[in-house]
Design goal:
With 83 residues, the protein is an all-alpha fold. It has a domain of 49 residues. Helices cover 30% and strands 0% of the residues. It is built from 3 helices and no strands. The termini are far apart.
Length: 83
């Protein structure tokens, strides 16, 4: 199958990308946790699911050599993964 596609859309935010996809303007690469509701409602469908790597979760990188501020230490503790 050959498909000719003219034009391209470029967005600065995920919200604009999501609105364009919901309006039927094309495909978008959006983290699944941001579109769970739309997928469950049937407003969006996953494409190329076999080629999507599993999402291991978010990561926080920071220099360990420096003493963290109290506010940053509280943030790290709040975001720490727990079972």
């Amino acid at each position: 199958m050959k498909v000719r596609v003219d034009g391209q859309l470029v967005f600065n935010t995920g919200l604009l990308r999501m609105n364009a996809v919901l309006a039927g303007l094309g495909l978008a690469y959006i983290p699944e946790d941001l579109v769970k509701r739309e997928i469950a409602d049937g407003r969006l469908i996953r494409v190329l699911a076999d080629w999507c790597a599993p999402f291991a979760g978010y990561h926080l990188y920071y220099p360990s050599r420096r003493q963290p501020t109290p506010a940053f230490a509280v943030l790290v503790e709040a975001l720490r993964y727990r079972k």
